C-alpha cells in the first residue's frame, strides 16, 4: 500500500508470464497507453511486455504515468488501464496532499494534481 493509504490495482483473474518492464529510449514517436500523450522520438519511456493467456502484449507508458502508477499500484498493475483503475478505486476521493510525497518528480506531482483538481470540479 502507498504511504498515504491510496491503493490501486490487483485482484486480476488471469496469469501473466514472461513479464518484463524496462525504461528505454524511443526510436520513433509513440503514444502513452495510459494518458495518450505523445512520447517523442529520443525520449525515455517505460516498455512493459509479457504473455497473458498465450498472447503476447506490450505497452509503452510515458515516465510521468509510470511514476504515478508505481507509487499507487499496490498488488500489481494492468498496463493500459491505470487512470480508469484509479477512478474506479475511488482513489481521487481518498487522495490527500500527503500522497504527493510518494512522487519524486515535479512533472508527476503536477499531473496528479491536475487530474485531482479536474476530478474535484466534476464533483461540483
Sheet-strand content, in percent, reads 25-35%
What is the averaged pLDDT score? 91
- Structural class, from helix and strand content? alpha+beta
Strand arrangement within the widest β-sheet reads 1-4-5
The CATH topology, please?
first zn-finger domain of poly(adp-ribose) polymerase-1
General form = globular
Structure overview:
By secondary structure, the protein is of the alpha+beta class. The chain has a single domain (16-123), classed as first zn-finger domain of poly(adp-ribose) polymerase-1. Helix content is 31%, strand content 25%. It contains four helices and five strands; from the N terminus they run βββββαααα. The strands form two sheets. A three-stranded antiparallel sheet has the order 1-4-5. A two-stranded antiparallel sheet has the order 2-3. Strand 4 and strand 5 (55-62) form a beta hairpin. Helix 1 (63-72) packs across helix 4 (106-123). The two termini are 29 Å apart.
Could you list some keywords that capture this structure?
single chain; 124 residues; alpha+beta; first zn-finger domain of poly(adp-ribose) polymerase-1; three-stranded antiparallel β-sheet; two-stranded antiparallel sheet; 4 helices; globular
Describe the secondary structure blueprint for this structure.
Elements: E1 16-25, E2 30-31, E3 38-39, E4 44-52, E5 55-62, H1 63-72, H2 82-88, H3 91-94, H4 106-123
Antiparallel strand pairs: 1-4, 2-3, 4-5
Helix pairs in contact: 1-4
Amino acid at each position: 500500500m502507498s504511504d498515504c493509504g491510496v491503493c490501486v490495482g490487483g485482484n486480476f483473474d488471469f496469469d501473466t508470464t514472461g513479464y518484463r518492464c524496462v525504461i528505454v529510449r524511443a526510436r520513433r514517436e509513440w503514444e502513452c497507453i495510459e494518458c495518450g500523450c505523445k512520447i517523442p522520438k529520443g525520449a525515455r519511456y517505460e516498455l512493459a511486455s509479457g504473455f497473458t493467456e498465450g498472447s503476447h502484449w506490450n505497452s509503452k507508458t510515458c515516465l510521468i504515468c509510470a511514476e504515478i502508477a508505481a507509487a499507487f499500484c499496490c498488488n500489481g498493475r494492468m498496463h493500459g488501464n491505470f487512470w480508469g483503475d484509479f477512478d474506479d478505486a475511488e482513489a481521487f476521493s481518498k487522495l490527500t496532499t500527503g500522497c504527493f510525497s510518494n512522487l519524486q518528480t515535479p512533472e508527476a506531482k503536477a499531473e496528479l494534481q491536475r487530474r485531482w483538481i479536474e476530478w474535484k470540479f466534476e464533483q461540483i
